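Hi everyone, sorry if this is the wrong subforum. Our group has a chain we'd like a structural model of before ordering constructs, and none of us has done structure prediction before. Sequence below.
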Amino acid sequence: MEFKHDTVMLHETVDMLEVKPDGIYVDATLG
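Answer:
Right subforum, don't worry. Here is the predicted structure as C-alpha cells:
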C-alpha cells in the first residue's frame, strides 16, 4: 500500500508566517 501526502494551503500558510531574515526558526514536525 502506497501513501501520498498532499500539502493543503501551503502558500497561504507561508504567506502568513512573517519570516524575518535574522529570526531563529525550528522545524518541530514529526515524520
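For your construct planning: The chain has a mean pLDDT of 90. The two ends are 18 Å apart (CA to CA).
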